[in-house]
Structures are given as C-alpha cells and as structure tokens.
Amino acid sequence: MIETIIFFIFISLCCAFFVAEKDDRSFLLLLVSTAWLLGLPLLSLVNNSFPFSGDIDDWNYFQLAATPIHSLSDAFNFSRFQSNSVQPGYPWLLSIVNHFSGHDLYTFKSLNILFLILLSLVWYRIATLLEGNRFGKGMACAVLLCTPLWFYIFILRKDLPIVLLHNLFILGLIEYRIKNSVQSWLILFSSTILLVLFRVPLVLINLLLISASIIISLITEKKTISAIIKLLVITGLVTGTIFVLYNPYYMSKFGIFSESRQLNSSGGMIEMAHSIHNSSTINRTLFPLLYVLTEISGLNPNTWQNINVQWLRGITAIPWIILGIPLLCAGLITLIRNITTNVATQTYNPNFVIKQNKINFENQWIVLFLFILTYFFLSWQVGDTTRWRLPDIPPLYAIALYGWYFSSKTLRNKCILIWLSSIGSFLTIFYLLREL
C-alpha cells in the first residue's frame, strides 16, 4: 500500500517538473508536495468515518477492483467487466492499482488525490497560455482548493478521472488554436479515446467543441486552401468517431456492451437522455441558479443534523457559494469587456461614424465559454446540476480567479457586497419563516 502511494507521489512530482516553466519548478514541486502532505491525513480522517457513500456505485467499484489480472493482455481486456459495469474505465484502472497494492480502499481513494493534483497541473498550463505564469500559478492553487471536487476524493467514484480527461481536452484545444502542433493533436485524441472508457456521452461534447473551434478558426483564416483542408480533416474525424460510437462491434472493443452507451436511435444514449430528461424532478425555472451554486444542501439546516456523506457534500460547496460566485460575476463582466472590442464603422453618411462591439474570436477564453455553455445545455437535458457538470467547475474557477486578478477593485468589492447581502437576506428570511 505505502509503495503504491509513494509511486503516486513520484508520478505527480515528475509531471510537475516537466510541465512547469523553468522559473516555476520549485513552486510547483512545493505545491504538489504540500497537497500530498495535507491531503493524505485528511483522506484518512474522512475514510475512517465515511468509507462508503451509501450508494451502490462505490461499493461495486471496490468489489470490481479485485478482478484478477493474469497477464499483460488480460490487463487491457476491457470486456472483463461487461457483466458488472457499463463503462469499464474506472474498474479497469482500480484493478491495475489493486494488482500492485492489494485490495485497499484507502489506496484506491488516494488515486483521486493524484487526479486532482494532475488536474491542477493541467490548469497551470491552460492558465499560463491564457494569461501568463502568474495566473498559471494562481490557478494551480485554485484547483487544489476547488472544494466542490473534494467530495469526489473521499468516495470511490469515476468523476475525477472524467474531470481530468475533459480538462486535458481543453488544454489540447487551446494549444491547437495557438500552435496547431503535433502535441496539441496528441492531447486531443488521447483524452477523447480514454474518455470513451469512462463516460461515452461526453465524447459528443468533445466532438462539438473541436468542430466549433475549427469553425471559429476558419472565420479568421486568411489562407483559403489551409482552411478547406482543416475543414475536411475535422469532418472526417468527427464522422469517423460518430460511426464508432454508433457501431456495437467497435464499442465492444472498448468493453462497452450496453445500448445506453451506444449512439443509436433505439435504446441508445440519445433515447436514454430523453428518458432522463423527462424523469428529472429538478426545478427548470431555478436551474440556472442551481447550476451556478453547484450544491445547495449545505445551506439546509436539516443537512447539519446528521453528520453523513451528504453533509460532507454540502459543506464542500459552501466556500464556492460564499466567495466564488461574486468573483465569477466580476470575472464574467471583465472578460466580456475584454473579449469584445470597439470597432469604428461608417454608415451611408461618411461624416457619421458609430462604434460597435465585435467579438474577438482569436481570444482563447472563447474555448472556455463554449465548454461551459455546452455543459450547461447537457446538464439541462439530463436534469442534473451536480455530478454530470463537474468538468466545467475548474473553468468557472478560472473565470472567478480572473475576476480576482484583473477586475477593478470597485467592481470586485461591489459584486462581493451585493452577493453577500443578497444571500444573507435570503437565508435570514428562510430561517425565520421555517421557525414560524
């Protein structure tokens, strides 16, 4: 067990060393070491109190982790889990860890700490590309302090590797828009292929985002031949991927045999999405507010009466609700101002000039806005504001950190004051009425 955790620490330190800019290496190595020193005792404390969430998923994953591996080819045989799991990614990963560490719940959960640390390193690179090293270091810290994701460290579920893969895809997309390098395409394809193992429906978001990004780049493309080639390449790739997702034979190669994870019209993921949408009990009118809040159970006094896993899930969202949301508002206002540029245009009267706002499509923050909007639409369809939308929480944190770094002090303080006054008044009225 100890050897496996040391190996996880070694992997994270190596990744921090290689992704860091030269001047930032000592900072990232110290940050990763601190994350492990604080994360492992905290995980041990929570694991002793709440080993399982009470749902059947984490218990099943714990049992599936004991699936034996007899050979190297057996290790990559995803069909081993076909009768127990519709997506083989997470049990496959746990079975590999189990092969070296033994059947230990704490070791399996420590893998989630590794995923969160790697996520912070991914966002160090994304934020550095967006706004420079200072913003990159700040975002690496912000992701490690992303408390809505902490809950998924403490339970045995596949959410954090999905968040990591989808945010790795964002990195590849932004690098593609800036450099169009082989590395960017490698990141895009590897993250998408691995995502198939964990949650197939989210692959459609990747296809949508890369298609939208290509179309946006074509708007500013000056070389017609290059633009046509890019369009043909992305059309072929998207068509080929959809064909694989539609075909049960190819999906079986990924260990996916359930129709609910296949893209077909009868019993497939599209029909399943409609079914989930119709059965959801979420209030559609309050959906945008609930979506931004991420989790509101911690604001309910009934949640605090029983110290259980749902209590833990509620309190991890409170720091974001109190401080993150007003900074998100400040960041959104500042970003929209910076992305839109004033362009002077002449009307039919040459002496009359007006100014219009025009979107700067070359700004890389466009990718994050597209990502968040796509996840908002997906969550709307699914009727969920918590688990399904987790991958867009780090981008929301990035916008909030942008508000902290780059918005004016007046705007920032105004957003915080208005929000705290509003939420304080609402909670006061709610609790007073509750006592009546």
Automatic annotation (TrEMBL):
Look up the domain of life of the source: Bacteria
Alphabetical keyword list: Membrane, Transmembrane, Transmembrane helix
Transmembrane regions listed in the UniProt entry: 26-46, 111-130, 136-155, 184-215, 227-246, 317-336, 365-382, 416-433
- Put simply, this protein is called Glycosyltransferase family 39 protein
This chain's source organism reads Desulfotalea psychrophila
